[in-house]
């Protein structure tokens, strides 16, 4: 994460210390957040890893267990944190998050209002985007959920960029202290149209708002309300499609069936010039992953109309 401590801002120059949060990376779909503490161990299928052996190593290091297995120790960026955080609510993932930050025009120094906080996935990325001189004020009506999110932000060193408050934005609106001082507003609410009049009062002239809704009926009603105070209203659905790249040998299937890709085992031999070369070149196959993340929700953006 982006820390307020200058010595901790560059993960490539900083070494792991006792009390740090690290991402233990086994593979792209198997990661875990661990807080380093002398005397504790981390165990997985590769063996036992002592926390004390990790202290002093730079982030990105490959570390080995008592059985010779290994993991990588990664810096807890917002992208990685989104993949390992505890899901207290439905969260936004990287495709939606990057789109939101871009269209909300969030840059260092911005003041951003968010409701609701949820699991804090988007909030961590917003905090990095506004740092070092901006701030994110996030609200959730659920007191325990807000408290857990606050603990996560402190653990990630983001407490100087994020303020968490308990408030029912749909019923009460945003606090008056933010009137006309906010650059961007993000809403993730069951009935966002109830909060839109308050959001319009908070935004600076030409400020931008985004509302996330899983159902198109919510979008329709929100757009009706948005047209009273906003312009340039548009809605997007972001779909992410990942591809799998595999290396192997093409062989005819059983009983003359279709060609299939078999795992490639490299074997080498000496060429006529005495150089070592591969016996055969593998086939590279690229195809969409079997499991694709589908619909998450609709993102509706609007700009405060000039008066």
TrEMBL record:
InterPro entries: SAM-dependent_MTases_sf (IPR029063), TRM61_C (IPR049470), tRNA_MeTrfase_Gcd14 (IPR014816). It catalyses: adenosine(58) in tRNA + S-adenosyl-L-methionine = N(1)-methyladenosine(58) in tRNA + S-adenosyl-L-homocysteine + H(+). Coiled coil: none annotated. It is found in: Nucleus. It comes from Dendrobium nobile (Orchid). This is tRNA (adenine(58)-N(1))-methyltransferase. It holds the Pfam family GCD14. GO terms for molecular function: tRNA (adenine(58)-N1)-methyltransferase activity. Residues 254-277 are annotated as: Disordered. S-adenosyl-L-methionine binds at residues 119-122, 140, 168, 188. Belongs to the class I-like SAM-binding methyltransferase superfamily. TRM61 family. PANTHER family: TRNA (ADENINE(58)-N(1))-METHYLTRANSFERASE, TRNA (ADENINE(58)-N(1))-METHYLTRANSFERASE CATALYTIC SUBUNIT TRMT61A. Its EC number is 2.1.1.220. Gene3D superfamilies: 3.10.330.20, Vaccinia Virus protein VP39 (3.40.50.150). GO terms for biological process: tRNA methylation. Keywords: Methyltransferase, Nucleus, S-adenosyl-L-methionine, Transferase, tRNA processing. GO terms for cellular component: nucleus; tRNA (m1A) methyltransferase complex. Residues 69-303 form the tRNA (adenine(58)-N(1))-methyltransferase catalytic subunit TRM61 C-terminal domain.
């Amino acid at each position: 994460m982006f820390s307020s401590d200058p010595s901790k801002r560059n993960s490539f120059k900083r070494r792991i210390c006792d009390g740090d949060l690290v991402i233990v990376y086994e593979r792209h779909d198997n990661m875990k957040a661990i807080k380093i503490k002398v005397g504790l161990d981390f165990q997985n299928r590769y063996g036992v890893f002592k926390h004390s052996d990790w202290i002093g190593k730079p982030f990105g290091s490959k570390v080995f267990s008592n059985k010779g297995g290994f993991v990588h120790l990664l810096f807890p960026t917002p992208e990685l944190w989104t993949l390992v955080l505890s899901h207290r609510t439905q969260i936004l993932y990287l495709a939606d998050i990057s789109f939101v930050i871009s269209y909300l025009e969030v840059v260092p120094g911005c003041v951003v209002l968010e409701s609701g906080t949820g699991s804090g996935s988007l909030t961590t990325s917003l905090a990095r985007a506004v740092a070092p001189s901006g701030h994110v004020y996030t609200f959730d009506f659920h007191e325990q959920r807000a408290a857990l999110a606050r603990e996560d932000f402190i653990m990630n060193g983001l407490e100087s960029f994020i303020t968490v408050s308990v408030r029912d934005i749909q019923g009460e609106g945003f606090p008056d202290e933010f009137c006309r001082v906010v650059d961007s507003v993000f809403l993730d609410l069951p009935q966002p149209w109830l909060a839109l009049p308050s959001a319009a009062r908070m935004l600076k002239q030409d400020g931008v708002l985004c509302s996330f809704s899983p159902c198109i009926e919510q979008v329709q009603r929100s757009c009706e309300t948005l047209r009273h105070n906003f312009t340039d209203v548009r809605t997007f659905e972001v779909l992410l499609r990942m591809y799998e790249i595999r290396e192997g040998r093409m062989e005819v299937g059983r009983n003359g069936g279709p060609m299939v890709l078999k795992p490639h085992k490299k074997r080498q031999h000496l060429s006529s010039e005495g150089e070592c070369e591969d016996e055969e070149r593998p086939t590279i196959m690229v195809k969409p992953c079997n499991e694709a993340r589908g619909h998450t929700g609709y993102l509706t953006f609007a700009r405060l109309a000039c008066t």
